[in-house]
Design a protein that fits this description.
622 residues, alpha/beta, Glutamine Phosphoribosylpyrophosphate, subunit 1, domain 1, Rossmann fold, 3 domains, eight-stranded antiparallel beta sheet, seven-stranded antiparallel beta sheet, 27 strands, binds 2-deoxy-2-amino glucitol-6-phosphate
């Protein structure tokens, strides 16, 4: 995915665009650019690499322009280089565009535009959008020969004509060189927000780029466009019908998106987990009455309680949380559950019989595969709920109902506080359904008490950062690691492997510990750290046996164990003790040392922890 930002107001646009792009850099960072409209021409500056490269190119330039658009890219079509960087200008120089999304039919459109005499500089689908708008703008008629209606705004009309020919997804900000006081935004399948300030407007992919200037925003829906001019703004459909949109308060604050003294957002977000979880649980765990209150899905609790099957669908870290959810629903609520990769579910023509509830989990609420899986499930008539962090995101708006994580913006590409919060929400839901079905009052009360103790227990684990850094330092040059767990900690082994892979670029594999003897144990050497989650649990003795199998073959073991467990010590080359909790809630604790291990390994290996290579925070493309 990419980050787009646009400004129209009474201040110089350049510094505002750059600052906004920096707040969106986590969305993509292989190239960046801005276009300023000055005296009827576009001043376009683009650079490969990070936004700091773009800043260097702009050093010393202070444009008076108060209208401009900017973009930070995660390449989908065309290599990450200067030519393919956005903004893209059409071949007549009249239309400038920044885009987040994918134009599925860009090749067909490009072929036709080339035949019509348009020229192209880049390999991107976005340049096709610019040329298509420019084509209709110049000729003042559409492909069927219909002229632009008299008196209409030709720029706006050309945008509507072009977007009506496009299949795919877009969040767009568009300028026209002949319209120095007009900024157009349009949305379909990628997020787009209009920030409404005092005599100034910003359009952006998410609130992080807006909140410094205003907390009043309009969230565009798919198929809507916004036209901003010196008189204000109006929202319309692509078929030119006016749409009334209400102004909403942006819920994140600036300090939530600042580093606040941490070296990286990931470090900050790992450290935030106690307070983030407290916020996630706050008002939802009713200890007095021994129940859970999840207002967002209260109308569906009856249907959920009677569900014959729950399908959880997600990607990446959210999928690992979903796997914990599968175990929680089966063990606490005794409801059959299964987890599906969204990318597989969406193409598998799934059978969703009567009584199936689908739960989509997504931090960003914009992951293309998960969004498509939600659409599939809705088309098949299933009740679809969402567990999402970003308020107003596409998945949050598409599902029938849902639960927000409430952990604030997660900016580090490697998901941390969102994972623990996703597990917390799934645990709350499973406990509440269990209470309504068969769990005893005492069991529920004990679970709720334990749940509310988790944030403080995480705080105790965070104090081991230096000890964990030393373990990472001792093993940072090992190029292959194994992560092993059983039961509720098997998904945590997968998550620990993903964390290490995605930010330290070390190859890591997560496995159910018992699977070792079915092949992977052939890999064991003293150069391959085996990370075991061996906390006190129902399979404790079994996992001790797995550790012995590895050590008997010279393997080095890093063991996450329960505080005070003396029995485990002889089996651990490196030991990370964590507080005890009941088995179903252990993932919220056992994941924390693995997050820290990955973080320290990445820092020690000199990588950019928050913007790991080839990745983006939210994958809004297939
Ligand atoms: C997690 O660390 C990764 N950044 C990635 O796997 C992520 O979890 C996945 O892309 C899903 O994102 P979502 O939760 O925003 O849908």
């Amino acid at each position: 995915m990419c980050g787009i930002v646009a400004y129209f107001g009474n201040k110089p646009a350049q510094p505002i665009l750059i600052e906004g792009l920096k707040r969106l850099e986590y969305r993509g960072y292989d190239s960046a650019g801005i276009a300023l409209l000055e005296n009827g021409t576009f001043q376009v500056t683009k650079s490969p690499g990070r936004i700091s490269n773009l800043e260097e190119m702009l050093a010393g330039r202070h444009s008076p322009a108060t209208l401009g658009i900017g973009h930070t890219r995660w390449a989908t079509h065309g290599r990450p280089n200067q030519v393919n960087a956005h903004p893209h200008v059409d071949c007549t120089g009249k239309i400038a565009v920044v885009h987040n999304g994918i134009i599925e039919n860009y090749a067909t459109l490009k072929k036709w535009l080339l035949k019509e005499g348009c020229t192209f500089l880049s390999e991107t689908d976005t340049e096709v959008v610019a040329n298509l708008i420019g084509y209709f703008y110049q000729r003042n008629q559409n492909r069927n020969g219909q002229l632009a209606p008299h008196g209409c705004n030709r720029f706006e009309w050309a945008v509507q004509q072009a977007l009506s020919e496009i299949y795919g997804t877009y969040g767009l900000a568009i300028l026209c060189a002949d319209c120095p006081n007009v900024l157009i935004g349009a949305k379909k399948g990628s997020p787009l927000i209009l920030g409404v300030g005092k005599n100034e407007f910003l359009i952006a992919s998410d609130a992080a780029a807006i909140v410094k200037h205003t907390t009043q925003a309009i969230y565009l829906a798919d198929g809507e466009m916004v036209i901003v001019d010196s008189g204000g703004f109006q929202t319309k459909t692509l078929s030119n019908e006016q749409v009334q949109k209400e102004l909403k308060e942006i819920e994140i604050s600036l300090d939530q998106i600042e580093l606040e003294g941490f070296r990286h957002y990931m470090e900050k977000e790992i450290a935030e987990q106690p307070t983030a979880l407290e916020t996630c649980l706050n008002g939802r765990v009713d200890l007095k009455n021994g129940r859970i209150i999840l207002g967002g899905i209260s109308n569906y609790l009856r249907e959920l309680t009677r569900a014959k099957r729950i399908i959880l669908t997600a990607c990446g870290t959210a999928w690992h949380a979903a796997l914990v959810g599968e175990f929680l629903f089966e063990q606490l609520a005794r409801i059959p559950a299964e987890v599906e990769y969204a990318s597989e579910f969406r193409y598998r023509n799934p059978i969703l019989e009567e009584g199936t509830v689908v739960i989509a989990i997504s931090q960003s609420g914009e992951t293309a595969d998960t969004l498509a899986a939600v659409e599939q499930a809705k088309e098949r008539g299933a009740l679809v709920l969402g567990i999402v962090n970003v308020v107003g995101s596409s998945i949050a708006r598409l599902t029938d109902a849902g639960v927000y994580l409430r952990v604030g913006p997660e900016i580090g590409v490697a998901s941390t506080k969102a994972f623990t919060a996703q597990v917390a929400v799934l645990a709350m839901l499973a406990i509440e359904l269990g209470r309504r079905r068969h769990l005893s009052t005492d069991t529920v009360q004990n679970l709720l008490q334990e749940l509310t103790s988790i944030p403080q227990k995480i705080k105790r684990i965070l104090r081991q950062s230096e000890a964990i850094r030393q373990i990472a330092d001792a093993n940072k040059d090992r190029e292959n690691w194994l992560f092993l767990g059983r039961g509720f900690n098997y998904p945590v082994a997968l998550e620990g492997a993903l964390k290490l892979k995605e930010i330290s670029y070390i190859h890591a594999e997560g496995l159910p510990a018992a699977e070792m003897k079915h092949g992977p144990i052939a890999l064991i050497t003293d150069k391959m750290p085996a990370v075991f989650i061996a906390t006190r649990c129902s399979q404790y003795e079994k996992i001790i046996g797995n550790i012995e199998e590895v050590r008997a073959r010279g393997g080095k073991t890093i063991v996450v164990a329960t505080e005070g467990d003396e029995q485990i010590k002889p089996y651990a080359d490196y030991l990370i003790p964590i507080p005890e909790t009941c088995e179903p809630l252990q993932p919220m604790l056992t994941v924390v040392p693995l997050q820290m291990l990955a973080y320290h390994a990445a820092v020690l290996r000199g990588h950019d922890v928050d913007k790991p290579r080839n990745l983006a925070k939210s994958v809004t493309v297939e």
